[in-house]
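Mods, move this if it's the wrong board.
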Amino acid sequence: MPRFDLPLAELQTYRPDIAEPDDFDDFWATTLAESRAVGGEAVVVPVETPLTTLEAYDVTFPGFGGDPVKAWLLLPAGAQHPLPAVVEYNGYGGGRGLPFERLGWASSGYAHLFMDTRGQGSMWGAGGDTADPHGTGPSSTGFMTRGIEDPAGYYYRRVFTDAVRAIDAVRALPQVDPARVAVAGGSQGGGIALAAAGLADDLVAVLPDVPFLCHFERAVGLTDRDPYQEVVRYLSVHRGADEHVFRTLSYFDGANLAKRATASTLFSVALMDLTCPPSTVFAAFNHYAGEDKAIEVYTHNDHEGGQAYQWQAQARFLGERI
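Not the wrong board. Structure tokens:
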């Protein structure tokens, strides 16, 4: 496909003004405090797998409102504890799958917690195991418009809170060094990692790969692909709701959350990405508050980005900071 967004030289300085509600910080502080106040501890149960070099555990931890959220924990067999940890978030529509599907981080000496995304897990992969027990008003197919009429009921309020509570949970594990925790993810997972970076304290690194959920207003008007098209379809029916919808989304915009993130970060972007347009990724990257930041640019890739090349770059980047 042809390049459709701004030239790279313009992308590198693209730092648009993005609407941010006055109560943004209070909204998130209250949200996280309420869920933490519910309490609860992670339940960690060993599982049998064909793996001989890694130990696998089924984890259930309290997420938004104390809701149970599933995850897989992988540890290097026989490793000396405590370990640095990577908390990883998943792409849109996928579930946590099976425990032996993602072996790179644990095989490299990290404790690896892979979080299930509530309500998802039935579009691709090997499935998810976490319900989203909260109802919403009218929405289009998918997750982007669930509860979009009110920030307090919006779907990603629950998901982003789960992401922070996953960090809380992994830091409480005896096998983990709580001072050496990083977050990672691709696409939706990258957007969730960026949100976690803006909402959680003292992360050692953040690794958003072709992140979704950034600069909503531009993305919705620029790409004809899902998931952003879910918002277009909603607005095509709910005519005149634009201002209200984009105000809700502003609480969850990766660019606004990036302004509050200070950990070392390695982004990636693909210049032919029709799912997460490059200008939306650069908007978040250029707003990112941390000084130790870098971005890998894949000039001729669509949303697949760098794939294994990017993981290798992430492992090198994180290893240098761990």
